[in-house]
Known about the structure:
The protein is mainly α. 45% of the residues lie in helices and 9% in strands. It has 19 helices and 11 strands. The chain has helices spanning 20-35, 56-66, 90-103, 113-125, 141-149, 197-207, 223-233, 263-268, 273-281, 296-302, 317-329, 333-347, 358-368, 378-386, 404-419, 426-440, 444-456, 464-471, 473-488, and strands spanning 7-10, 39-42, 106-109, 155-158, 165-170, 174-179, 187-189, 212-216, 239-243, 246-247, 313-314. The chain has a 3-stranded antiparallel β-sheet. A two-stranded parallel ribbon has the order 1-2. The chain has a two-stranded antiparallel ribbon with strand order 5-6. Strand 5 and strand 6 form a beta hairpin. Helix 6 (197-207) crosses helix 7 and helix 15 (404-419) packs across helix 16. Residues 11-13, 45, 201, 215, 219 line the site of glutamic acid.
Amino acid sequence: MMEAPVRVRYAPSPTGYPHVGNIRTALFNWLFARHSNGKFIVRIEDTDTARTVPGAVETILESLEWLGMDWDEGPDKAGDYGPYFQSRRIEFYRLAAEKLVKKGDAYHCYCSSERLEEMRAGQVAAKMPPGYDRRCRDLTDEERQACIAKGRKSVIRFKGPKGGETTFSDVIRGEVTFENRTIDDFVILKADGFPTYHLASVVDDNKMLISHVLRAEEWISSTPKHLLLYRSLGLEPPLFAHLPMILGPDRSKLSKRHGAVSITQYRDEGYLPQAMVNFLALLGWSLDDKTDIIDTETLVKNFSLERIGKTAAVFNREKLDWMNGVYIRSLDIEDLSTRALPFLEKDLPGSVERPLDFEYVKSVMPLIQERARTLGEIPGLTYFFFISEIDYEPELLIGKKMNRDITLQALKASLESLEKPGSFSRDELESCLRPLAEKLGLKAGQLFGTLRVAVTGLTVAPPLFETMAVLGKDKCLERMRKAVLKLSSVESE
Ligand code: GLU
């Protein structure tokens, strides 16, 4: 028998913005599809209309696009098995539910929500496992007719087996067994005619010819229900692979507190999509248990379900920051500058003239490329290159084992040397200032510390000579003259 082509799906519910966990699921599906020359399908599971969040679908698609996960079928990409929004497939679910009722594998349940609540409260009080007590399972025809005559609304429930086990072979976990008594007669079609997740998922995975269901471990307890539905509907189930959980560094379930925010927030904070893909791929999968930096092409080439782990993955924000730094350092200056530009435009102080001079931005970037972990950090690391007035406490100019007068003298001597006509290149600056420190009887670090504060306003900044060369002679001399003035206003001890 020929193996069916790989067709996998990412099936988000638009009940919120996609976070790390959702997107990791999307990525594993995408990597598996691309590795296997299969199809990656996006299906929007929007049958819970009350929980649908406006804008969520757009954000989901935007997140996929940002990370380079293209889909073969889905919203905006018609395929042979659409529509790809469950809310437009209601008829399929209704027909399936009716088929099950006709077969005697499902039934109408007329229990009111009050009755169900009472039943639940009773179960809690008696410390019984929760679940529908099957009151409507064996209604006689007359009883049913009476309910209909009273205009009672009904849901359709699946008639679960009363005993036995449901077993399946999970691609990642191996054999998984559930006792059927833990599965109650779950609802498949709600009173408003919308399906529940279970029915919709089974009907669609079948109609869309899904070969493998790769989804988060939290769904594993739904799988026996799905298998029972496949069997009753006379359908062949796909293969199931449940991806390991993602925990926070404290090993509790990943939450907002751990940085499990919407994926687009990472984009907005200046993470690079390549770094994000690399990082997410390692949440539950590994190439060889040791390689950390893996580009997307290599991921696609090497991805396999066999190397997905069973144990929970830990989300480590520091690792993401480190990894993003590695990717930032690998960019050429033109590329880095292009990516940094919108962050600079947005976050530099309002006093800085816009649009920024791209050539100037390009000259600044090499100075911080080693240090920036995110693009969002770049305005904070470089603002003194752009603003006209730097602001700092004059005392900062006075370095270790120096005083006001020595510092003033050092600044004035530096000004005098640098005011002479000549190049202001990095090397020129160094060969002028190093000997000057000696002449002044200062350590190089003392003089350079003073000059660093004078030209940047900071005690920690990129390498001094490079910084001065980029700022240019005029600006440096002007800032040094201002430093002399500032310091002169400080009382001598
Ligand atoms: N709609 C479900 C979700 O939001 C899909 C679960 C599945 O993949 O079956 O995650």
